[in-house]
Give the backbone structure.
Amino acid sequence: MRARTLAFLAVVMLLAACTQAADTTTAPTTDTGPATTADTGTATTADTGGATTTTADTGTEPSGGGLLGDIQSRGSLLCGVNETVPGFGFLNADGTRSGFDIDFCRAVAAAVLGDPEAVEYVPLDAQQRFTALASGEIDVLIRNTTFTATRDGGEGATFVTTTFYDGQGMMVFTDSGIGAMEDLANTAICVLSGTTTELNLATRFVDIPYTPLTFEDNGVLQPAFVSGQCDGWTSDKSQLAGIRSAFPADQGGPEALTILEETFSKEPLGPAVRDGDSQWAQVVDWVVNATILAEELGITSDNVDTFADTDNAEIRRLLGLEIESDDGTAVFDAGLGLEPGWAANVIASVGNYGEIFDRNVGPDTPLGLVRGVNDLWLNGGLLYSPPYR
Amino acid sequence: MIPSARVPFWRDQRVLRVAAQVVAALAVFFLLYVLWFNVTNNMRARGVRTDFNFLDQPFGVRIAGSDLRPTAPVRLALLNGIRNTFALAIVGLPLLTILGVLVGVGRLSTNWLVAKISSAYVEILRNLPPLLVVIFAFQAVILRLPAARNPITPFGWFVISNLEFHVPGFRAGDNYRPFMLVVLVAVLLGALLWWWRTRVHERTGTPHHRWLWSLGTIALVGTMAYLILGRPLTITLPQLEGRVVDGGYRGLGAFFAVVGALAFYTSSHVAEIVRGSILAVPKGQTEAASALALSGFQRLRFVVLPQAMRIALPPIINQYLNYVKNTSLAIAVGFAEVTLVAFQAIGNGQPAPQVVVLLMGSYLVFSLVISLLVNLYNRHLRIVAR
């Protein structure tokens, strides 16, 4: 099954490669995307000439490939997601999708297309994801993907701001009596193949004999773990927490499982885009930053409409409200190629970072994760957005 | 032919034939060149490596059922995967052949129960997708066995859990190598005796007793060598010590799930081929055999099956190839055959196009070797015109 999928992907890549080659000769036509956004930009700010209030200046912006324009003319965002991790990317029984990563897909769609629902989700497993990204099957990969040097360099992916600082852990059955990694000597450990988790496991267990059982997705891994084929299940702690929270009650519920204390890797999870289109990378980057900045500024999905009269210049810039200028009023445009007010769309549809966190994985959800390092820098966490100006 | 009546070369059929071939070959080469050029160029433009140096990079992870360290190069990991695919083939192909022939013959049995059971076997298995059969075998059979933390030990000879099966095995002693050499010579000698007794039987009609001759020789030489060389081999039983099982041979549960599922699945196709081939043998052959007072088994063994196999072999090759290709489904249950290892490599940052090319190459070699071997056997079975 997977063999065929990958073979198919290989063919698609080949064809994509051919069409890409053809595209370079007709580059001017693909540039129409950014041009249209520039038009809408000028409509509201036609009478201004200030440097900081310029319209989207796509002429000077090196738009390598113009994926942003392609997405806007297509009218939907192709988002590569997971559908097996509760709280992060999960396909619910009723066919809807929910999760932390899904919300960031919606946030990007809200920023780029003004509609958080304009997302076409492409479910991917760990092994397919970079091939799918490189071949243009998806626009952005938001699938609990760890930012590493090889993936940045060798896989043709560009990572943007990390959305979730995670670390790898080990989950065991509570009644197994396993309390530390060393207790797992000579057992089998279940792990998803093609993940950084797999590599970290080999590193952490370099002196501990074990049998790795590698599976393609959690749907097959979970029965193997439940039946006791493997004694440990290793993954990012957030994923384990998600799986533990949804562990069926007839098998003992969440209490039957324990996540060991030790964290043995750094797993910065974040969106990734294809190499070679810096404009698109910047857009995705700033969508993430906007959610962090919104939390810092106290903007939430509930109060985002109440800032029309605020004096805070940064809020006015972020939300695309009129700002003071010499000749009348104008809106701030950072030149990202997005319509002014995009950040307001993002926050109105998915909320700020804190809301996204609390809704999907926070203390009141079955996962019950605390913010920890995923808190604002003001609160001693790692989230720190550059200023929006 | 009169020189003046020579056709000009552009209307000469012989010339045109060659020219057409050359043009076709050029077109194919051009197409391949364009594809290659496109792929390498675009990969380079995207900063993706196009070389095969990654084969020397460390693979980075362990593989279940092998002693490879995570520092072993990708090359060795892929070879390990190929070895595991080979193991699936070497165990599965004989199994599915035997099952297929039995069920195929069973469908034609005059015994109502045997015939119906065989029909049900074929109709159920052949109409299921192989992936489903593999996942069923894994989740509904293998995973139902006792958990790895408390395996069962029937008779003290086996250690069985849903992770691994352990069976008694041999352990090499001091003179292991010379002993194996002697055994090899004995086997060759046995084959030679077999051939000689067959010749004698064909020429003179005296009973051949070839089983007795060849196996007797092997057993005699083997036993003598065993005694003289001082126990070069010892039988070891798997011993359970905590979580470690020492001694004996081991096999991963997932391996048996894949072999079992695919052998059963493919055997249902082979059974139909065998049944069709038996029906294709003229009825007169059976009748003639009956007229010679051959028993039912003798009719099958000496008259019908030899002729049926001649018809069945070419389509059975296809089923063998299908089996080998279907072993890639082992990826669904986590058995580290070559596809899983290749995808693992891709997932861990090795370049996908090159790895997929290597993967396709390895399946191609597998398939070609199998067709070659079976075709050789097919030639051997052919009616020899005297």
